[in-house]
Protein 1
Amino acid sequence: MGDMMHDTAEQEEKIILVGVATAENDDTEQSLDELEELGQTAGAVTLAKVIQNREKVHSATYIGKGKIQEVKELVEKYDADCVVCDDELTPAQYNNLQEEIGVKVIDRTVMILDIFAKRASTSEGKLQVELAQLRYRASHLVGGRSELSRLGGGIGTRGPGEQKLEMDRRLIRERITFVRKELAQVQKNREVTRKKRQENPIPVVAIVGYTNAGKSTLLNHLTGAGVLSEDKLFATLDPTTRKFSLENGEEMLFTDTVGFIRKLPHHLIQAFRSTLEEAKYADAILHVVDCSNPDMDAQMHTVYDTLNQLEVGDKPIVTAFNKIDRYEASESLKDLHADKTVRISAKYGQGIEEMLESISNVLKANKVLLEKVFSYEEGEKPNLLRKYGQVLEEEYQNEGVYMKAYIDREYLYLFEEPKERTKEPWEG
């Protein structure tokens, strides 16, 4: 294995992964497999994986002395550049472990932050990454200096904020305040966009899912959006919104969101809140699931857990089990959270029509079809229908404006005729 690994490109950083299993049936092995994928995305090659079974992580060094020695020997054997721990380390764990092993040590959070730093392309994305990086650094300052100052190059040292990270507490606080102000302005602009969108009757569908589930491939298939679509984790970071028209003329806006992942750092959820909140303001959610992944159930749980953290309310959900062309199991695919489930292959276009029909149906479930001629004296009502409804047909006739539209039940009262009050018996 070692010889094979040494044949890799020189620019690749050589890493060893370390995790702690605290329960008999936990998912540490799958989590390390995912960490390996994260490493690939960050430009690293994994030489070995080490799992320690403990009741709880070691408070001072993350893993016990025996495992530290094992990791140290592997570092020497493979000439590794870096050790990556699967959980977020405390400053003490980080410092002690690095002293013991003698090479750069980072954790899962730093790895994810590094990938986000590489992938951010918009000014908002870059600001969000920098804010998350600064918050992480601030929480890992020990004795007035950053323990990350000895990282050297490679993973954990990249990003929009890389020149600004070696700072004392005061400077970091000042920089955080500045970045927050910049982000607040960006978020204000986003709110304006959202309000304009809400005034527009076209419903918004937020595409969510575990990272690498195929969300971008699906959006590209539907709209030709040209979103970066790679077989890598976090290929898409910045949200993309595109319009799609059904054959019957019905229109939808699809918004892609950043992929979710287990142990998604709190710093990132906070920093990317405005981006992830696209789901909160959508009319429906399209949950894309990679059904070919053996860890599918755990990934679905992570997605719903993250949506709960974002306080996404009772939105109608359509779950699209993607990569059905690779699904070999005989069991039926279920999602108890979803209003509808469909099987699709975003790559080959399989099941897309059924998926669109399902989305259309869940969107209409809370809507009623209103067909009416408004007299020209009721000038305001057609305007209200244009504002709050989805107009399908509109025609100016002699007697008034004929309109056919879908409208949310909550706005139906605006268009109902006032009922003539029936006299009570005592009123004569």
Protein 2
Amino acid sequence: MQNEGSVLDMRRNLIIKAFVLGAVGCAFTITGLAADGHGQGIADSTTELNEAKHEAVRSNWMDRTDVAIGIQTGGHSKIDRGHFLTDDQNSIYNKQSDYGNLTKAYIETLQPISHYDENSKSVLFVQGRIGLGGEKIASKEMRGYFINEPIMTRHGYLSSYTIKNTDEKSSETLGIIGTVGIGYRRLSRNEHAYIGVNAFVDRAFTGNYNRISGGVEYVNGLNEVYANVYKGLGDKKLVEGGGGNPYPKRLYPNGYPDTFPYNTIPSENYNTYTGGGVLGGYEIGVVRSFKNARWARVYVNGYRWNGDGFNHKQDYNWGRPGHWSVPWFTARNANNYRGIKIGTELQLTPHISLDVGYNNANNMSKGMYGTLKYTLGISKFAFWGGKHSDDTITTARAKMLDKVRRQDMIVESFNDIEYDYLAPIDHL
């Protein structure tokens, strides 16, 4: 009986030990399963985040290619008439500015030439454009043109002839322009900002005009600042010419007199000045995006173009005895073109965007402007059919493949002519 009791005790102990070991094993198994499940959750979450970031920066060449059409209004014509502010009381000055509407149509693309994904901190890219655009500003000036027409002077005296002076300015679309450039952008460590540099070459095929530019960019969060400097290439030398017209027929339609009474003009001389070229200058712009409306941007852009110019002066030169040449045109000052643009960019749909604003400028086309763009691919941010915000990627990284902002090419041409006459000092 004692032996039987010992056996039972041994069996009981074995059962208890087996139960304890089984419970421990089950506990480890459950803990392991829980641990495996938790790790899988972390892995899944990380994967989803990486996929979201990858999707946020993913794009193909079509997403970065636009077809655009636009117009810049020319502003109203301005005509000023009145007496020329000289000592000559019979001198009339007519000033007219007639700037035309500028149209443009082009295709533009930006493509990275270095690897770029959600983990890249920098990108090297090329940007190109081809199409109709630019502005050609024409300036024509005339000084000292005599006509056989009586006129009342500012002081109420009747003159037998009129001296005309004109200043005319106009503008038109330049023509087909090709542009190619290279740029580099690098993100900050926390990806909230980037800096960029770029260099471009522009060529207007109509007229063979060429231009180069260099630019810098800085993006910090929702704010952008950029600046570009432009330099025209090619020959800008002033071309001078001249000649003479003995016995100008327009002054004596009934024939030249046999004698030389007072106020008779036996001849006239004229000098011509032609030139122009691509304008150099600079621009500075500020752009603002919106956190919950990433499809919209507002901007301000200020610019200045340095016009070509020259100085030429007529002095009192003695002609034949008792006569002297009358100076009419003393100097031509360079035109400086400057202005400021205020506008907004709206990504209306994944394919269509609108750039509209007002351009306040001098000596060139100005007023309302608008450009409609069609993206061959899609934009991720859009008012209709796209995202309004995205927290998976910083604003700076989202703009790494945006196109560089630049001004269209501006060309100036001038054609001046001045007349001087051998006029009597006194009766002969």
Protein 3
Amino acid sequence: MISSKTYCLKLTILIANVVSVVIAIIPNINELDAVNQTILSIIVIMIEIALIIIGKVHENNVDKDFLGRSKQEVIEEIKPAKYSQLEEARAELRSGIKIMLACAIIYGIIIFFIKIINLQWALVGGLVMIIAYIYADYVPHSQKYAENYDKLFIVENEKPSALRGLGRIYLEEYQKTRFRKKDKYYKEMAQLLPYDGSVADPKETKIFLKCIFGNKVASTNNTLAIIGYVMLAINILTVVPDLYDFIAEFFIYLTITNAKTTISMCATIIFMIVSVCQLYEYYSECYGVKRIVQAIDSNSLAEMLSVYSDIEKGHNGSLYRIRGSFDYSQNYIEQHNTIKGCPMKYRMKFPDKYYANISRYNATYLLSIAILFLVLSNYTSFSSRLIAAMSIVVCIGYVVGKYIFLPQIGRRRIQRICEELGKLNSDL
């Protein structure tokens, strides 16, 4: 049951979104001077900031209404017992990175407003920091995971190697498949159910499923959140006088005033749509989380498998399975000090690395193109032909990077390490 407090917060979000859109439309209906337009823009910005805060409060209340506790507490309950060692270190690192990122953004805003840098370079700096955050969160964790495994096999004074650690983790798989994506072994693994009643241990199957459930519960629709923050940023930038000339370069047919009001109105409308979608989507997410919790509490393998089947068929189902496989492999290593004996169908396999990296690649490529566009805008003017040519190159570059270069990242080096390890084992 939804509490009256949650209902009031929901109603507040809906009304505030409508009010912000009405205020944003006013300058496009009635001509206003620059001062009044700026005042209305600031009011819209304050409403949107308030909506983000109220939205978080609303989500916390929805968690309590549906789950009786926060989603984070649910995640902690789902995690396998010894799973937290490496993840706790990652969480601490992530918290530190977020603080540093927030400080850097605030610093960037300050130096922009005191005219040390122009708008384009301020935006470039912000985008570079976002890319840095993506990889500062991922690279140290994955490297530590591989190094920790290599430590189990080296002498005390020998330096652990992340590459050699990955080679040890994937050695058994390499000897079976040579990492050939179309190898029949991978097809056989893909066709196997999490539990077939004969091969797998039911207890291990439940741990594997919990790892998948934990990733599903922890997942959020980052796309909607990012769009919302971008629209808020656009509205903030429309208040900055230096933005007018920048906008006019790309919208020559519009006056500076019209450009500002039109962009502000569109950004506000999109923000409203995103906010409302996030509002109702979160209810759906909580229904799903509640079902997961009920399946785990029942300790029924059949019910857990039923939930898993629905997750796999849903949006990003394969990605949740891949991330769950990584978590299971990590947990298995922590418990047994080896990957040997871990069911192959529960492991994160080498081709899975490609699918796990796609979202990171998409974000990096998009942000890099935006950075390139902003840098070039400082040195050249964009004609329609130049924009068309750049668009074609960007599209071709994306396809080539995603389907040719991304699958090959680290492949040859790990193959070489696996060959060396395999030869060493045979010699022994």
Protein 4
Amino acid sequence: MIKIVGVGIENGDVTEKGLRAIAGADRVFSRVKLWFDTEALGDSYTGEADFSLLDRFIAEKVAAAADSGLNVVYCALGDGFTDTAAAEIARMREVKFIPGVSEYRGRTPHSGVSFISAYDVNGDTQIDTSVPLVVYGIDDALIAGRVKLELADRYGDEQTAVFSSGKNSAAIALYELDRMKSYTGAALFIRGEDDVMEKSRYSFADLARVMTRLTADDGCPWDKAQTHESIRINLLEEAYEAADAIDKRDAENLREELGDVLLQAVFHCNIAERTGEFTFNDVVSELTAKLVTRHTHIFGENKAADADSALGFWEQAKAKEKSYNSLAGQLDRLPDSFPSLLTAAKAYKKSVKAGADLSADKIAGKLSGLLSSGVTAENAGDLLLYACFLATAAGADCEADLNKRAKSFIADMKAAEEEKSLDKADGKL
């Protein structure tokens, strides 16, 4: 049986039971160099900066030593339970934990502190910058560098923090985190910044807090007065402006416009929370669940060879989730607020998928018949519908393509006017 001994964060933290286990071991392993002799497996790891692979490397080395009949101990910082390599060892072999002093000891300047392992800090980590944060398990400069980059994205490079290693603590700027001399039992403390006026960079949690403040009883009169209906048009306008930035390949403007779209989403969530309809967390939870359940080729047993097959699995999962038992059920779900061309294109695709006889030749025949009889106000809707069907069958995006062509026509007309040759502009149609 492999013994996992928690050694705390500095000399003197190991329990008597842990000391006896270490003294009686044939081989003593650890991830990093400690204040007593161990085989620091992290030093011999030559793989890429993938900490899950490092954990497996350590676990396999420890397991191999135990399988050879030796009495093996793996020393983990803190109480031993937060060490990810120890967890990997426990999955591979039978182990006995001998806890030590928790890494939390002495790392809590006041209550309401958020704790997170350095190995869990990544782009997906939710960090509320309004409350104090302790990041523990910063075992080396490589891990410190990764933590620095992720936290700097939330707090800014110049954020002041307290770095602790062993018995030593010092105030540092966040950008200095991977430049420390020692990482023995290292941890980082960042004070929560309640005053948004003092911050140089904001998080998603800050956005939600500011929105809540604006709609509080003593908040902004205009913000408090808004409803889903009153700001409905804002959501559409901001979405169109974001789409325009995409079309123009304007990354700087897109960043701003996506912020405006996000504001509308957060605003509607805030309104819903105040009226008791749903909460922001309800929206996030439902969205995340949707991403999981509809990506059956990622989180399930399906295999997607390309983008088309991936989209097919998404549609299958969606149909099952929504209980689409008929074409009528799918068509009824088309939003009334869709632009007309988008509605027509969606209806065409769903109908064809359901088996409707809407071949290009058949649509072209109908269109030709309408044109031969002359365009009137009465048949204009049919002409536009079949033209959209025919273009969609050819793979066109009618909404986007017509918009692009309309803008091109506008540019042609403006140029013709400047040249005083409007009579010749028809040649560009």
